[in-house]
């Protein structure tokens, strides 16, 4: 009877350890998705530089931010006529688990009517403009 109880305790403990590993992966994945989405939202809220409008189609610019165990990279690719493809990627380490996530958005640089004269802002393109990437 003692052997059966010991075997049952070992099986239950192994199940609990597997659940803990799964939960750590879920937490890291959620943090990575939040970081990628936040980076794209921060880009949309920022003011663009007018030099971006002069870039030829296909050129890219990249910015990377590191905060603790979180690395976020935003890449802007010119599509021409003031339109841009924005890709934000995030890598997060949480409890020894690494998770990666990306978010893709399409933006256009337009004059900002609410700001000072000559100021610009990003505007998301209508339709399917933002998506989480697996």
Question: What do these coordinates show?
Answer:
By secondary structure, this protein is α+β, with helices and mostly antiparallel strands. It has one domain. The chain is 33% helix and 41% strand. The chain contains one helix and six strands; from the N terminus they run H-E-E-E-E-E-E. It has one helix at 2-45, and strands spanning 60-67, 70-80, 83-94, 97-111, 120-124, 130-133. Strands 1, 2, 3, 4, 5 and 6 form a six-stranded antiparallel β-sheet that branches. The radius of gyration is 22 Å and the shape is rod-shaped. The termini are far apart. The model has no long low-confidence stretch (mean pLDDT 87).
What is the radius of gyration? 22 Å
What's the main sheet like? 6 strands, antiparallel
The sequence of SSEs as H and E is HEEEEEE
Question: Which percent range fits the helix content?
Answer: 25-40%
Catalogue the unreliable spans: none
Strand content: 35-45%
Number of domains: 1
Distinct helical segment count: 1
Shape assignment:
rod-shaped
Structural class, please? Answer: alpha+beta
- Give a count of the beta strands, DSSP E runs of length 2 or more: 6
């Amino acid at each position: 009877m003692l052997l059966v109880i010991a075997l049952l305790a070992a099986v239950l403990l192994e199940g609990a350890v597997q659940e803990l590993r799964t939960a750590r992966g879920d937490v890291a994945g959620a943090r990575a998705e939040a970081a990628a989405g936040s980076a794209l939202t921060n880009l949309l809220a920022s003011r663009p530089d007018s030099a971006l409008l002069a870039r030829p189609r296909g050129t890219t610019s990249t910015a990377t931010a590191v905060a603790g165990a979180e690395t976020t990279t935003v890449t802007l690719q010119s599509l021409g006529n003031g339109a841009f493809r924005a890709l934000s990627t995030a890598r997060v380490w949480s409890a020894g688990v690494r998770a990666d996530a990306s978010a893709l958005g399409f933006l256009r640089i337009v004059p900002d009517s609410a700001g000072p004269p000559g100021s610009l802002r990003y505007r998301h393109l209508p339709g399917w403009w933002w998506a989480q990437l697996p």
